[in-house]
């Protein structure tokens, strides 16, 4: 029997998931509006694959009463995840496992506390962006880590990681997903706001015009991570680097690996949509305030993004 996956939010990661899972599992994309059935995936190698993807609007969900899914993947932006879940919660049993794919650390703790069933969190370095109403570009292969914040659903996380790997998205079940979510948050904070405000691709952050700003962000972020008990990446002090140096090395590594990628926050700015600043910068600024740490650089980025959003 095929496992059924609902994917709530047909954005870039949602459509990449649908393209990957649909050959091996019954997969349905769910969104606010109807999508063309034929969808095009452009692989990192530049190949184009056309697949018919099953999709439903929330309104159609009410009238079609499909079989309850084994997993609901929520791939909306962080600030709309809870509203999106509320829109479908009447159509799924409260024991249904959720998989949260949001950036930042905003939706994950809230939904984990309020949803009665298992809540898994996924963090991925796969890059993707939309190409019109019927296309998604898989911009770069990465790795996905799956786990839950309370470390209670290891078997479920392992089964999902195996399914994702079988679908062509390399994935691993981990016990430290909270650490990994904060690590990704740290990297996103150093990259996304700067590329969004300056309209540049990730790789351009290495230029003299931006590199100093990246280092200033990482300086604040490293202090916050230390206060939160989040380990520096790649061994940190174990390989002779300070925590700050280890965080900066990771940021430059990601910048290099995703040099041609157009970050999601830049995509939002170009489309004149609200950004995920609240989910990425918000938890860091909140943590700095709790621990009595300076965060003027992060606060300045947040203020600039708020002003930009207000102009849309």
From TrEMBL:
Biological process annotations from GO: pantothenate biosynthetic process
Pathway given in the UniProt record: Cofactor biosynthesis; (R)-pantothenate biosynthesis; (R)-pantoate from 3-methyl-2-oxobutanoate: step 2/2
Coiled-coil annotated residue ranges, if any: none
Domain Ketopantoate reductase C-terminal: 176-305
EC id: 1.1.1.169
The Ketopantoate reductase N-terminal domain, residue ranges: 7-150
Assigned GO CC terms: cytoplasm
Keyword set, alphabetical order: NADP, Oxidoreductase, Pantothenate biosynthesis
Keyword Zinc-finger (UniProt): no
InterPro entries: 6-PGluconate_DH-like_C_sf, 6PGD_dom2, ApbA, Ketopantoate_reductase, KPA_reductase, KPR_N, NAD(P)-bd_dom_sf
Catalytic activity: (R)-pantoate + NADP(+) = 2-dehydropantoate + NADPH + H(+)
Enzymatic class: oxidoreductase
A GO molecular function held by the record: NADP binding
Family: Belongs to the ketopantoate reductase family.
The protein's role, per its UniProt record: Catalyzes the NADPH-dependent reduction of ketopantoate into pantoic acid.
Protein name according to UniProt: 2-dehydropantoate 2-reductase
Origin species: Vreelandella boliviensis LC1
Lineage: Bacteria, Pseudomonadati, Pseudomonadota, Gammaproteobacteria, Oceanospirillales
């Amino acid at each position: 029997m095929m496992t059924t996956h609902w994917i709530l939010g047909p954005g870039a990661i949602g459509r990449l998931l649908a393209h990957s899972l649909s050959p091996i599992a019954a997969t349905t994309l769910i969104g606010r509006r109807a999508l063309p059935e034929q969808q095009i995936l452009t692989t990192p190698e530049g190949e184009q694959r056309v697949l018919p993807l099953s999709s439903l609007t929330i309104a159609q969900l009410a009238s079609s009463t499909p079989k309850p899914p084994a997993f609901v993947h929520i791939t909306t932006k962080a600030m709309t995840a809870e509203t999106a879940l509320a829109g479908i919660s009447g159509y799924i049993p409260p024991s249904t496992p959720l998989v949260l794919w949001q950036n930042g650390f905003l939706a994950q703790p809230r939904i984990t506390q309020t949803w009665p069933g298992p809540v898994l969190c996924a963090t991925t370095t796969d890059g993707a962006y939309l190409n019109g109403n019927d296309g998604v570009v898989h911009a770069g292969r990465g790795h996905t880590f799956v786990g839950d914040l309370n470390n209670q659903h290891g078997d479920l996380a392992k089964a999902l990681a195996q399914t994702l790997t079988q679908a062509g998205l390399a994935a691993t079940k981990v016990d430290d997903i909270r650490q990994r979510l904060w690590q990704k948050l740290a990297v996103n904070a150093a990259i996304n706001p700067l590329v969004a405000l300056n309209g540049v691709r990730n790789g351009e952050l290495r230029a003299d015009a931006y590199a100093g700003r990246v280092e200033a962000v990482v300086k604040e972020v490293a202090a916050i991570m230390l206060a939160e008990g989040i380990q520096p990446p790649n061994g940190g002090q174990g390989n002779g680097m300070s925590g700050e140096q280890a965080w900066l090395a990771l940021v430059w590594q990601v910048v290099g690996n995703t040099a041609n990628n157009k970050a999601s926050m830049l995509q939002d700015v170009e489309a004149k949509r609200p950004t995920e600043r609240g989910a990425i910068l918000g938890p860091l600024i909140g943590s700095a305030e709790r621990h009595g740490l300076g965060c003027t650089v992060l606060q300045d980025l947040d203020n600039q993004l708020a002003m930009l959003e207000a102009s849309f």
